[in-house]
Design a protein that fits this description.
globular; mainly beta; 10% helix
């Protein structure tokens, strides 16, 4: 069944059709489909790199970027909800909430189609200070690989590239397990100079809702929205 064009289908083109049908449905979430998706599951492991990364993760955690705690068998929820942002752009939330000891932690992202429609922009955190281009690829088994491009920092008049010395390259792999009826997710963030920084892996089930009925719950949208693409 052909689904309405989401921002993800738009940038992937014919490659989108190579994804597993369940992955296609998850990444068809958007204003055209009118669907929101909520995933609920367990992270088998949330891990960190060497000790020197902890201050960076702690700083990022204050703006819901990355997760400054480690854990095993951590319940989590991911909310993918489409809406039009302040600038009229279709936006899809990727808000992950991890139920860690000591209180929940969030990792927020909002994805927006570039003005030319040739790439997806990933704005990170509560204030969208960090942004990167995302590159999508369908694998032969129907899974989806997402890789981040260059990171940029934007605040007020500042608009600069994040140096590779302190930045991280992210890779996300999402697949669907026919046997269990669950999505599998694996995320790794690696610094080109210092190696692995952070990651998690686990599985979840997904439910869908009519976004026109459920809307965007309070607290899901960022505090600040960035206009620059």
């Amino acid at each position: 069944m052909t689904r309405p064009a989401s921002i993800f289908r738009t940038v992937m083109g014919a490659d989108f059709e190579r994804l597993h049908p369940q992955i296609q449905r998850r990444f068809s979430v958007g204003l055209a489909s009118g669907e929101a998706c909520t995933g609920r599951g367990v992270m088998d492991r949330i891990w960190h790199g060497r000790g020197f990364v902890k201050p960076f993760l702690a700083a990022g955690g204050t703006r819901n970027i990355l997760v400054p705690r480690q854990g095993r068998n951590v319940p989590f929820v991911i909310e993918n909800v489409p809406y039009a942002d302040t600038y009229g752009r279709e936006t899809v939330t990727f808000v992950r909430t991890f139920d860690l000891p000591g209180g929940p932690r969030r990792f927020d992202a909002q994805m927006v189609l570039s003005p030319k429609g040739d790439r997806v922009l990933d704005y990170l955190g509560t204030h969208q200070h960090l942004a990167s281009d995302l590159h999508f690829r369908a694998e032969p088994d129907g899974s989806l690989v997402i890789r981040s491009g260059e990171h940029r920092f934007r605040e007020g008049p500042v608009d600069c590239r994040v140096p590779s010395l302190i930045g991280g390259d992210a890779e996300v792999r999402e697949s669907y397990d026919e046997r269990t009826g669950r999505f599998r997710i694996q995320v790794r963030v690696v610094n080109r100079h210092f190696g692995p920084l952070f990651g998690y892996e686990g599985s979840f089930t997904a439910t869908y809702a009519d976004v026109r009925a459920c809307g965007v719950r309070p607290g899901l949208r960022p505090v600040r929205e960035e206009a620059r693409a």
